[in-house]
Amino acid sequence: MEDYSKNTYFSTFKRLKDNQFKVGNTTYKERITKLNALKRALDITYKNKLREALYADFKKPYIETDITELYLVIKEIKYAKANLKAWTKKQQVDTPITLFGTSSWVKYEPKGVCLIIAPWNYPINLTFGPLVSAIAAGNTVILKPSEMTPNTSKVMADIVKDVFNEDEVVLVEGEVETSKELLKLPFNHIFFTGSPQVGKIVMNAAAKHLTSVTLELGGKSPTIVDKSANIKESIKKIVWGKHLNNGQTCIAPDYALVHESILQEFIKVYKAQVLNYYTEDASTSNSYSRVVNERHYNRLINHIENAKNQGATIELGGSCNAKDNYIEPTLITNLKEESSLMQDEIFGPILPIKTYKTIDEAVAYVNSKEKPLALYIYSNNKKNTNYIINNTRAGSTCINSNAIQYSNHYLPFGGSNNSGIGKAHGFFGFQEFSNMRSVLKRHVKGPVYLLLPPYNNFKQKLTD
Ligand code: NAD
């Protein structure tokens, strides 16, 4: 056994490890009591503090905090509460004839001590959402939120101290180094949400202990708009999905693939919709948040500058204010394929448009890149829609809308390969934090007895 005693977080880890069976053996009702306490904190006690903290972190409008953070975690809690009794029950399975005389079931047992590492873009939802699944499944947990939303992390730390015992759930604040130190410990499961680059670091660290991982990653989510789409309705959703949280959403439409015959109409309606949602000057709109920090602001401005230098056309926006990390809703066409906007995940309020002539061309373009976390299709042509779904791969797809697939907890949420491994939400989240333990019990002698050595005297074995 490796000596972890010098690790900064070893004593915390050990406390959680020593307590794992006590927590693991809690009844579903006791787990619901914990979930209720968390729900009360989010819904009542700390609601305003969380809204204020996220506003201080990147001017996130209160209403967006309510809808995209608090509501989603509370919904996850309600769903787990309603189903936990059934999920934690032993799941009887069939018995093949060759195992006559036995019965079998699956027991969802907790994995043990889990680490949840969260990003900054939806800090409450992506820290507490997985926590709901981990608690429902009976684990002890260390939470490590992002250092980039410090105001929110601080309030979340207070909530954890308030709601949980320190041998059940602990929140550790800190920078990347904190994360690296935690990753050295032999957790039983790691649930990581963040970039594919860091996902690889997490998976590497987990491999050392053969720790199972859930990796909720990102990438470039395409939005295909074909000739049959209702442009006005489609754009209402695309503009919302792109600019919600200032484009800093893992499942935001990253780029649009638009049929060449509707490009001009697309641009015209997009401009009108931006005006409609955020007024002439989005910096004065109370529905428009900011880029999270200077580093990301500079990264996005560089994308725009590079595109301009390569001859791209800024159809809308492009203005900015470094003091406030503000970038106007921006629409760009005529991009070179090698431009950084077409290569990197954008994660900001910029939508590049690429045109296509045939559905095959659009599909080939999507398939030339890593498998996306989400793929959106705006179309009223069933044949095109099915063709796109059957000939591409993605974590999820939304037809004639975007982002809202995330809020259906009956659907698994996650990516595929570069966009992620494993699934979250509802029962899928519970499953991710559980080990499916197979149990078989023998009741009476069955035919298996006949197979014991010596391989003769079958009659006698049956009467023994
Ligand atoms: P990130 O990968 O930079 O950071 C995520 C977490 O990892 C943070 O807590 C950070 O402290 C930690 N971290 C950073 N570098 C590390 C390292 N070298 N070693 C160990 N830990 C490290 O991601 P981010 O910038 O916070 O978030 C944006 C990314 O997350 C985007 O790619 C986005 O698509 C993705 N994302 C995915 C989902 C999803 O559900 N699939 C949701 C939100 C965001």
UniProtKB/TrEMBL annotation:
Catalytic machinery residues: E216, C250
InterPro entries reported for this sequence: Ald_DH/histidinol_DH (IPR016161), Ald_DH_C (IPR016163), Ald_DH_CS_GLU (IPR029510), Ald_DH_N (IPR016162), Aldehyde_DH_dom (IPR015590), Aldehyde_DH_NAD(P) (IPR012394)
The keyword Ion transport appears for this protein: no
Gene3D superfamilies: Aldehyde Dehydrogenase, Chain A, domain 1, Aldehyde Dehydrogenase, Chain A, domain 2
Entries under Pfam families matching the protein: Aldedh
A Gene Ontology term for the protein's cellular component: cytoplasm
GO biological process: aldehyde metabolic process
Top-level taxon: Bacteria
Record carries keyword Cell membrane: no
Domain Aldehyde dehydrogenase, chain residue ranges per copy: 20-439
GO molecular function, one term: aldehyde dehydrogenase (NAD+) activity
UniProt keyword list: NAD, Oxidoreductase
The family this protein is said to belong to: Belongs to the aldehyde dehydrogenase family.
Protein name: Aldehyde dehydrogenase
